[in-house]
Amino acid sequence: MKAQERYFANMTRIIKGHFYIKLYSEKLEMRERSLNIFLAVTSSSSIAAWAIWGDYPMVWAGIIALSQLISAMKPLLPYSQWQKPVFQYYRELSELVLDAEKVWVKDIAEGELTKSQILDQATEIKEKALKASDSLLLKGISLPLDKKLSKIAESQLEQYLFNSFNVKKRK
Length: 171
Description:
Layout: H1 3-52, H2 57-73, H3 78-108, H4 115-138, H5 147-165
């Protein structure tokens, strides 16, 4: 593999990871928001509904009990704890993507760097990406793979590469 191809491959892996982590962060935020809305609605409306519709007291008691159980378990749910570190990781990848693209556009694509310098740059962005990833692992976070998000991230990468570099669909 040529030095330029190696750099571009590293850069595209980081860009895909950037899209994937952004989607994952949004998923975590949506779960947190949905859970908070559920808790707010059930805790306030269930008591009112129970008072108004006394026909099904066990149903309303069950809804209130479920709401209280979820509220008590909420701090223990992993996505509540993952939200901020995953967003921070996304921000680190965003900066890395910008830096990697700048090197590609200014130096590599224009032929300003030697093969050795390009390989050094490829290694450098890979090391920075690993360091950013390690920051999550050090916080005890190992994100499970979400195949649906990965597929969406791949599609976003393809569109991005076409729009930014006029690169057609990868195989």
